[in-house]
Amino acid sequence: MTNQNGISSSTYERVMMGPGKVTIAGSAWATKGGNVLEINRTFRDIRPDGALGKVKGFRYLESSDATITVNLLEGVEEAVYYGLAGAAIASHVISGGEIVAASYNTVTFAMEIKGVTATTENSLMTVTLSNCLAEGPVTFTLPDTGEVVLQLKFHAHYDSSTLTTEPWSITFTAV
Question: The whole model's pTM is what?
Answer without folding.
Answer: 0.80
